[in-house]
DNA sequence: TCACATGATATAAACGTTTAACTTAGACTG
DNA sequence: CAGTCTAAGTTAAACGTTTATATCATGTGA
């Protein structure tokens, strides 16, 4: 038996396929009684809309492209782990819609730019979700120029307004800094993401302002920018711990780098809480299992993820992007006192 | 300007659309010179195949469904991190093909079963990739009954032969056990995945055989089955460390549970290398940053991932599944001696 | 009673491709 | 030279929808 189409239903009911089509999508042009008949027939024959027909006719793809910039195959470092959660959140948010998530895994920024060009010009999707936004992001520009619906995970600095979801990095760093300074820290290291990423800039600014507000000097040597892998966290600690005036606190941008920082502590024989402390933002619930557990800002990642999904739906529906901008403030989890207990 | 179609090229060259179509897909029915003309015209007008037309006509979707069983939104545990790498590997393998990855995030086994039923019956994809196989997996059965191409990440025990990629769990456990027993361990704990997963069974069997071969007794209390989260690793250690005759070695199925085991050590005041040691399989390069780094079997996850992608392509191409079965043997990385240094 | 509006349905074309079936000119065969 | 074959095209239909336009009762107003 062939899969039933609207034609099947038309024959079944003696109506035309046009009427069937209209009835099934709830057009007011068809009488309620007729609709009931059609719906009954559809149910009876087990009709399911064939998307290929719709896609060809309407030009809509019913696909949301999720661009995932993942480390290259030779790159064995533990990175991009949050993507699994991000993707599933998006997928769930689209669950009750006709849209599906089409995954575009790319190796680097240039490839993501190229992927977006393709998707936009060949209309391979109806909407796009990207992450890892830059201060001035050409991908955002392309999509805006083409009026293509999109949502970013992460803000931009220089681009025109657009839909986004992000953690409130400014507030996180400000509060982290205040808290550490209150606890007596004067030399605080900032383990920051890649320099060109938008949130690296936001965080650095917040860091400098916090220092200024406390009357502390800014030492560029205490700021490290890099890919947020454990290797990077480790290297940063190994370097900074050798300074004549080493930091007594490290604010790591994620748990991967925090784990690496611990590894650096271990290597140098530093004891957490005695020689220095580690804090982290963007906690995904790994750091509570560190030994010792550290103070973090916890981001329940399913929240921004599902929001990305809901926002892209609304954006594709034509909602202005001003309504689709959210900064989520992660929750402070104090697992450590973070005051140094120095031996006399 | 409208996007060019084969019709555009037909007008441009004065040939019929049938000839254009055949030429572009390399049919031998068209003369090389004609093909050249058509290809030149296609190039000139910037022609790109419209998949919607192809899909409607041929019934092929050019989608590979990747089923990702991810933890629920309320489930904050660190789990399923390997999916990001798995998905990008698959995506890369499909890069030069017309196929794309369609993501189906589901919350549990039942949902994955339902998703597969849908995909198979409504032909929402041309191939499926699943993971987390069970010993007797109904999803595999459904796909086999319907002659639907698929590849599994993980083997099955009771199902008919099918295409799969997996780590060689049997060998990993056997060698791990031999190595630990050689180093004097007599009470070895097995931190195993969920009981119904195929590889849990493979591992348990290998574990028992290794004990038997060494003339050691099997103690069911030293085997824990559960979702491979840090919480599970931690709980397992907390429980087993309180035994009157506690284990001196833990073999954790992944790094998440190994991290949790460390957390348990910290809680109970156990010192790694003195009181007990932790080993892990399925290393994703996190454990080298543990303090101390532990001995693992390292699985460069991009290998099986890309293999999954290549295999599904070949399977959809009709290749018999017997050619598409691979067990990958991860590489032992000895970061620790793992002999206990007990104080006298 | 006629002209006309209205509501409900039907007709037909279109989206871009593939492919079965047909045409035609020339080469080959006996 | 008639008949047959072949190579290289063409024609036309089909995939399953949506939607602009046409049709046609029926009801309305003068």
Question: Brief description of this entry?
Answer:
By secondary structure, chain A is of the alpha/beta class. Helices cover 41% and strands 17% of the residues of chain A. The interface between A and B is large, with 56 and 56 residues.
Topology (SSEs and partners):
The structure is a homodimer of 344-residue chains.
Chain A: H1 6-13, H2 17-24, H3 32-45, H4 51-58, E1 63-69, H5 82-93, E2 100-106, H6 109-121, E3 127-131, H7 138-145, E4 150-153, E5 164-167, H8 169-182, E6 188-192, H9 198-213, E7 223-225, H10 230-240, E8 249-252, H11 255-268, E9 277-283, E10 295-298, H12 302-316, E11 325-328, E12 331-333
Chain A binds a DNA duplex (30 and 30 nucleotides) through helix 2 and helix 4.
């Amino acid at each position: 038996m062939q899969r039933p189409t609207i034609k099947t239903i038309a024959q079944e009911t003696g109506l035309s396929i046009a009427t069937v089509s209209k009835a099934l999508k709830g057009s007011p042009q068809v009488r309620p009684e007729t609709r009931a008949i059609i719906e009954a027939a559809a149910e009876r024959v087990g009709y399911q809309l064939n998307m290929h027909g719709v896609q060809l006719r309407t030009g809509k793809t019913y696909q949301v492209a999720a661009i995932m910039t993942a480390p290259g195959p030779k790159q064995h470092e533990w990175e991009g782990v949050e993507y699994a959660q991000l993707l599933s959140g998006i997928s769930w948010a689209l669950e009750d819609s006709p849209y599906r998530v089409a995954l575009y895994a790319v190796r680097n920024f240039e490839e993501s730019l190229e992927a977006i060009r393709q998707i936009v010009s060949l209309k391979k999707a109806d909407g796009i979700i990207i992450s890892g936004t830059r201060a001035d992001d050409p991908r955002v520009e392309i999509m805006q120029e083409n009026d293509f619906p999109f949502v970013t995970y992460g803000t931009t600095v220089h681009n025109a307004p657009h839909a986004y979801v992000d953690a409130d990095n400014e507030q996180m760093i400000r509060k982290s800094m205040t808290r550490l300074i209150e606890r007596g820290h004067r030399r605080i290291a900032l383990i920051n993401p890649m320099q060109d990423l938008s949130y690296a800039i936001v965080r650095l600014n917040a860091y400098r302002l916090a220092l200024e507000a406390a009357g502390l000097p800014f030492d560029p040597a205490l700021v490290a920018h890099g890919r947020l892998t454990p290797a990077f966290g480790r290297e940063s600690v190994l370097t900074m711990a050798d300074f004549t005036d080493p930091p007594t606190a490290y604010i790591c941008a994620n748990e991967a780098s925090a784990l690496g920082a611990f590894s650096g502590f271990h290597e140098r024989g530093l004891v957490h809480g005695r020689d220095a402390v580690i804090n982290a933002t963007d906690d995904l619930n790994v750091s509570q299992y560190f030994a010792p557990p550290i103070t973090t800002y916890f981001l329940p990642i399913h929240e921004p993820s599902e929001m990305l999904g809901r926002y892209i739906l609304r954006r594709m529906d034509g909602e202005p992007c001003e309504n689709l901008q959210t900064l989520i403030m992660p929750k402070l989890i104090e697992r450590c006192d973070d005051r140094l207990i120095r031996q006399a």
